[in-house]
Automatic annotation (TrEMBL):
<dbReference type="InterPro" id="IPR010095">
    <property type="entry name" value="Cas12f1-like_TNB"/>
</dbReference>
<protein>
    <submittedName>
        <fullName>Transposase and inactivated derivative</fullName>
    </submittedName>
</protein>
<dbReference type="Pfam" id="PF07282">
    <property type="entry name" value="Cas12f1-like_TNB"/>
</dbReference>
<feature type="region of interest" description="Disordered">
    <location>
        <begin position="378"/>
        <end position="409"/>
    </location>
</feature>
<keyword id="KW-0238">DNA-binding</keyword>
<feature type="domain" description="Cas12f1-like TNB">
    <location>
        <begin position="304"/>
        <end position="369"/>
    </location>
</feature>
<dbReference type="GO" id="GO:0003677">
    <property type="term" value="F:DNA binding"/>
</dbReference>
């Protein structure tokens, strides 16, 4: 059994001025303590929370004696995290400052500083007593609650001065049981699609990532050319326009939905997911011999590891095992004869030089991933040899999957949020 944690951001209802002013004063004291602790930690090279707390806890308590004592504890946690990150960047030469700057403050809360009241209210302790705050949960929050997730003891809070609200970062946890693997579900991640092999049938999900990347590439280039000529390279209006682009959110949406489909399929069949072991920065190896700037940009923005990370995160929620295999030549060798495939004119269809079989590039990659997973751990999963894979010389044989079933993006990208039946949600059961 494994413990899985997720963070959900929930906004509060507008607060009365008296309550919000108390939180503003709390934020000011919290910021002052964090700044002092970060400066001390960086000057003395302290990366450990325990060491920082042992040196500065009593001093922080004397600085604000009217503040609950656990704020001195959580500020040490916050400051040690900031100092550790800054010292790591400084060691790599990625920062120009001698000391970090505390720009934004997110107040860390432990189980002594906040208490949940049901699912829609919380209490936060300040120097002026406890403050009750009403939350405005969204659909994602209720989705987690309806699936059995529970609130953890830690949380974080940030002030929204413009709307007189607070933004609460809630941590939800769940105990997940891991099942015994009955088979494997290989997944091949490409620039413009994700291909899976389910019981000998290859399914290709079109992601449209190439069109998305190139569209924003030309859009950013047009904005830069226009405003650099009018206002200069460091113009504020150009930064504001570029900041409003939604490329990252659209990519996250694609990755999350495709990962959800893959993991749910593996969970229903009690399979383990097989993916390529690409390393931390696979794009650096892919662009070594690429000179075209646009192609290099596409390779970096294709986010191969981003899709794999989304699959890994979703797999933890369902207790699905993830198996990593060597990605070398997975799309270049015939799974039947272990012979090279001949591709012509940039086509994704290749022919085995030994047996003459015709293979789609993404399909042969999934078959090779499956074979390497079976040979790697010696499990009792069903073998792809025999009736599930045609060994004859006839192209597109009757028992071999040479061409994938294509699923367009508008088909698989649809997603139902909350249940259609009103009584099936937790909040409506509470109302009754």
């Amino acid at each position: 059994m494994a413990r899985v944690a997720r963070t959900v951001i929930v906004r509060s209802a507008p607060l009365p001025r008296k309550k919000f002013n108390a939180l503003v004063e709390l934020e000011g004291m919290y910021r002052n303590m964090v700044e002092q602790l970060v400066m001390h930690a960086v000057r003395n090279g302290i990366r450990s929370f325990i060491r920082l707390k042992a040196l500065k806890y009593r001093e922080m308590r004397k600085l604000y004696p009217h503040l609950p004592s656990h704020y001195a504890y959580t500020t040490c946690q916050d400051a040690s995290t900031r100092a550790k990150s800054f010292l790591r960047l400084k060691k790599r030469g990625l920062t120009r400052r001698e000391h970090p700057e505390v720009r934004s403050v997110v107040i860390w809360l432990d189980d002594h500083l906040w208490k949940p009241i049901g699912l829609t209210f919380i209490r936060i302790v300040t120097h002026k007593g406890w403050i009750k705050v009403e939350l405005e949960p969204h659909r994602q929050y209720w989705r987690y609650v309806n699936r059995g997730w529970r609130l953890a003891s830690e949380a974080k809070m940030k002030l929204d001065r413009k709307n007189r609200r607070i933004i609460v970062y809630l941590t939800l946890v769940k105990e997940v049981d891991e099942y015994k693997t009955r088979g494997y579900l290989p997944v091949d991640v490409n620039e413009n699609n994700v291909t899976i092999l389910v019981d000998g049938a290859a399914i290709l999900f079109e992601t449209g990532m190439r069109k998305l990347v190139l569209g924003y590439y030309y859009r950013r280039k047009k904005v830069q050319q226009k405003y650099d000529e009018l206002y200069g390279v460091k113009s504020r209006i150009k930064r504001m326009i570029l900041r409003k682009l939604r490329e990252r959110k659209k990519k996250q949406d694609v990755r999350g939905k495709i990962a959800n489909i893959i993991v749910r399929t593996a969970y229903e069949k009690q399979y383990a997911i097989v993916i390529e072991e690409l390393g931390k920065r696979p794009a650096n190896n892919m662009i070594r011999k690429v000179k075209d700037k646009q192609l290099r940009h596409r390779i970096f923005q294709a986010s191969f590891r981003g899709v794999q990370r989304a699959i890994e995160e979703k797999a933890r929620e369902y207790g699905v095992q993830v198996v990593y295999v060597n990605p070398k030549n997975t799309s270049r060798l015939c799974p039947l004869h272990n012979a090279p495939l001949a591709y012509s004119n940039g086509s994704r269809g290749g022919r085995c030089r030994k047996g003459g079989e015709q293979w789609h590039r993404d399909v042969v990659a999934t078959w090779n991933l499956l074979l390497r997973a079976l040979r790697g751990d010696g499990s009792a999963a069903p073998s792809p040899a025999g009736p599930t894979l045609d060994g004859g010389r006839v192209p597109f044989g009757p028992t071999a999957t040479h061409e994938p079933t294509r699923v367009p993006k508008p088909v698989w990208a649809r997603w139902n949020t909350l249940p259609q039946i009103q009584n099936s949600t937790t909040i409506n059961r509470m109302k009754r």
